[in-house]
C-alpha cells in the first residue's frame, strides 16, 4: 500500500476526528470504572509494565488508532528503517541507530552491506582503549594515570551520554566500576562552562574526548581549542596526543585538528546526532567511566526493545502504543505538550535528552514530500523528576492547562533507605506520590465532594479539580544499565512512530541552520568592528543597537 500524501486526508484520520466529541463527553472517572477496559489498556514486555488506562481513550479509540497506523503504512515504514532504506530523504541517509546495539551475529544492511561487523570493530576498539586508560597502561604525558575525563560535545553529542551517565551514577554496580574516576561534560560555548569543567582538575590526569559527528560544530570546536590550550600551556604541545582523543564521522577533520585518527572512534552518517548515544558518542566516554561491560548491558537493554518494536503486534507493542497515543493527544484532543515525570532522581536528565530527540525530530512544518502540513506535528516536551516537579509546575497540570503526563516509576531503588521508626521506606514515600498523582489528575475533586468535607463556599471553586487529565504510567523493575537502555529505546521508537504517522521526516534538522548562519555573520562583524574600533552596521535597527551597546560596554 502506498502511503497517503497527507494523513489528514484519509478516512481513518477523519473517523478519529469525528470520534473526538464522544471522548470529550466521557470523563476519565467513568472510563476508569470499566475494569475490562483498564485491563486491556496494559502492556508488558521484558519486565516493564505500561498502564495507559488513564488516557482519554476507549478500546474503540485504540482500534481507530490502529487503523490510522495501517493507513499511514506504519509497519512498512518501521521495516524500511530496520532494512536500512534511505528514509531520511532530505539528507539521503538511512536511519540505523538500531544497528549500534544489535548482537554481534545480527545482519543489518545499509546499501547492501552488513554494518554490524563495523559496529563491533569500533566497540572492540573502545573496549580495548578504555581498558588501557582505566588500568593505567595508557598514561598522560607526565606518566600519570588519566582518571578524569572531560567529554566536549553539544546536542546529540552531549545530552544522551549525560542522561545515561546521570542514571548510572548511583547504580551500585556502576559505582563500583567508576571508583576513583570522574566524567564531566563540556557543552556550552559559554566560558563559564569551561571554568566549571576544569575547576579542580589537573591536566596531567585528564583525558579530553572531543565528540562531534561533523567535527565542525562551532561551540564544540572552540571548546576543543580552549582545552587544547589548557593542556599544552600546562604540559607542552606534545602532550596533546596523550590527552586528547575524538569521536566523529569525520576523521579527516579530526586529524587536521591535531588528534591522531588512531586515537579516534568512528561512527557513520546513518546515525543521527540525537540518536547517537549508542554509538562511540556515548559508549566511549561511558566505557572510560564505568568500563565496557556495564555499557554493554545498556546496549543490550536497548536492543531488547528494538526487537520488541520490530516484531510485536501493534496492540502489544509499547513504542507503537506510546506513539499512537501521543498523536491522539496532540492532533485530535489538541494537547500539544507532554510532561516527562520520572519518579527517580537518577533520571533527572531524561527529559532534557528526550526534548532534543522529540523536538528536533518532530518539530516540522512540512510533510516528507515538502507539502505544508495542515495540522501541527511535534509536541512540546518538558519534565522534572517527581516529587520535585510537584512543588513546581504541577499546579498548572492539575488546575490549569491539560498536559498529558508520562509517569515513570522504579520498583527497586538504586539506593534504598529504611529509617527506623518511619512508617515506610524513603523509596515507598517517593512511590506513594508516583501512584497518587495519576489518579489525582484523572479523577479530580468535585464541588460536591468539597461540600461534604464542609469546605467554605467561597473556596470551593479554588479547591475544585476538574480531573479528566490524561497520563500514562511505566513501571520498571530497577534502574540498571539494562533498564536505562530499554527506556532510551522506548522513547526513540515512540518518537519515530509519531513522525511516521504525521508523515514527516523525523531524521533531519534543517530548522537549526538559520540561527547558525546568522551567528556566523554576527561573529564576522564583531571581529571586524573590534579590530577597527568602529560600530557595526548592516543589521536591522534593533540588532545594530544591541550589538553596538554590547561592543561599547564590553570593551570598556
Ligand atoms: O545543531 C543541531 C545539531 O546538528 C544536532 O543535531 C547535533 O546533535 C548537534 O548539533 C551536534 O552536532 P555535532 O555532533 O556534529 O557536533
UniProtKB/TrEMBL annotation:
Pathway the protein acts in: Carbohydrate degradation; glycolysis; D-glyceraldehyde 3-phosphate and glycerone phosphate from D-glucose: step 2/4
InterPro entries: G6P_Isomerase (IPR001672), G6P_Isomerase_C (IPR023096), Phosphoglucose_isomerase_CS (IPR018189), SIS_dom_sf (IPR046348), SIS_PGI_1 (IPR035476), SIS_PGI_2 (IPR035482)
Gene Ontology CC entries for this record: cytosol
Keyword Isomerase carried by entry: yes
Pfam families: PGI
Cytoplasm as UniProt keyword: yes
EC number: 5.3.1.9
Subcellular localization: Cytoplasm
Record keywords: Cytoplasm, Gluconeogenesis, Glycolysis, Isomerase
Catalytic activity reported: alpha-D-glucose 6-phosphate = beta-D-fructose 6-phosphate
HAMAP family xref list: G6P_isomerase
UniProt subunit comment: Homodimer.
Protein family membership: Belongs to the GPI family.
Protein name: Glucose-6-phosphate isomerase
Natural source organism: Camellia sinensis
